[in-house]
């Protein structure tokens, strides 16, 4: 590394990677209507692009509002307590469902960004298995988004042949 290269630090690098994958998810869904977004992958899977948006909204909500803010008593999003695949099963071809999913996702991402900006990477959240640092949550979310962006790439290719990002 040259002396001219700025040292951005751990937090900046991790948040940049997480935001990159958040952007990939948005781009994978660009220009699709409710029917296309709700199109399922290979049976018996219930995975769809819309289901991924709903799932990742719930993931952001759970990690930031429940775990990092230490509010484990908050209800889970999309009725997930009652039904494990509610994120995906509720992803139906309806403009209102699409709008609700994007609103939830954007709200939770904005909330996460505010939280990240106001807390250090060693901030402790409370998980069912004990305390964990914010850096662990960010790394987990990078992994979660990266994996699901791979799914999104395959789903988008099945819809209209578009690949890459």
TrEMBL record:
This is DinB family protein. InterPro entries: DinB/YfiT-like, MST-like. Pfam families: MST (PF04978). Gene3D superfamilies: dinb family like domain (1.20.120.450). It comes from Nocardioides hankookensis.
């Amino acid at each position: 590394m040259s002396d001219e290269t700025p040292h951005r630090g751990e937090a900046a690098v991790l948040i940049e990677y997480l935001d990159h994958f958040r952007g990939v998810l948005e781009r994978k869904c660009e220009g699709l209507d409710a029917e296309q977004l709700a199109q399922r992958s290979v049976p018996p899977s219930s995975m769809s692009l819309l289901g991924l948006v709903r799932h990742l909204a719930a993931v952001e909500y759970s990690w930031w509002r429940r775990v990092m803010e230490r509010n484990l008593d908050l209800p889970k999003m999309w009725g997930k307590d009652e039904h494990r695949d509610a994120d995906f099963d509720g992803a139906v071809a309806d403009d209102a469902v699409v709008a609700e999913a994007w609103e939830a996702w954007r709200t939770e991402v904005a909330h996460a960004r505010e939280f990240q900006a106001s807390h250090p990477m060693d901030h402790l959240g409370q998980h069912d298995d004990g305390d964990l640092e914010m850096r662990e949550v960010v790394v987990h979310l990078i992994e979660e988004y990266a994996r699901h962006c791979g799914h999104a790439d395959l789903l988008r290719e099945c819809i209209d042949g578009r690949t890459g990002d």
